[in-house]
Amino acid sequence: MKIAVVILNWNGVSLLEQFLPSILRFSADATVYVADNASTDDSIAFVTDNFPMVHIVKNDGNLGFAKGYNEALEHVEAEIYALVNSDIEVTENWLLPIMQTFEKEPQTAIIQPKILDFKNKQYFEYAGAAGGFIDKYGYPYCRGRIFDSLEKDKGQYDNDCEIFWASGACFFIRSSIYRELKGFDDDFFAHQEEIDLCWRAFNKGHKIKYNHKSVVYHVGGATLQKGNPRKTFLNFRNSLLMLTKNLPKKKLYFVLVCRMILDGIAGIQFLFKGSFFHFIAILKAHASFYRLFSNTYKKRELIQLKKYYSTKSIVMKYYINNDKLFVK
Predict the structure, then answer these.
(1) How many other C-beta atoms are found inside a 10 Å radius of the C-beta of residue 179?
(2) 112 close to 35: Cβ distance less than 8 angstroms
(3) What is the spatial distance between Cα 26 and Cα 82, in angstroms, rounded to a whole number?
(4) C or N terminus of the chain, fewer CB within 10 Å?
(5) What residues are paired with 58 via a beta bridge?
(6) pLDDT tens digits along 220-277
(7) Has this prediction a pTM greater than 0.90?
């Protein structure tokens, strides 16, 4: 099977300098691409001068994660796309177990490797850890990570299993499925677009898997740091968009109202902490959601809704019961 490793880049020359060599060293059977979102630094020149074997796809602007990949992948031919953040360090044979799974399991559409923290390699990393799920109100969580609590990797998730969503930090997908689903939703720009894509794949009967034998290390927040209000805006807005698109109709409005109340509580907490700009980011997220609601709701017509994945609330589990370990 032909695989293309595609790294989305925007003004990340230092990240490419640090992490591209490991990808090239351990990806001999893959074709490596850098999809550039109109960087204004020396990214393109650096790759061209130092790694002429890497293919470059130039986008017309900073299109974000969602549209950036959608545009770039129109120029990439392969059976499997490996969408890899520019701040990922890969390990030897990281591709082999992934490709073996795709070859043995034709019903598997999307796969995520084990994602550990580059800065503290004994612990899981926030963005994906050992595979993602969502709770009844649409909050993402992972095996190995609930909200900001990260587990140490003790081999407790060294089993391959079905998951609900795979992390966009290192995301493997059959190109045929990517095209069937029409890629990521451009309206998301960045954050949670991969969860939306996985939910749509799930609703069409495709399987999403976690493979523990493939290991990568992720820096996290290299492009948009956790404390940036823009990140808060995108996460709160996109979560509501995702729910609007994918929830069964009988649960949609109840869950949206619950989320808006919980978002309001989160906003008040930001105010008490003196994080005024994050409070404003939540207000802007809701305003943007209202503007996009009608168009987003229309997208439901293209989706075969089957069921909503979880009936548990991790908010209750985490903040009320003080339980910070993963339990499916």
Answers:
(1) 11
(2) no
(3) 13
(4) C
(5) 36
(6) 875 666 678 999 999 999 999 999 999 988 889 999 999 999 999 999 999 999 999 9
(7) yes
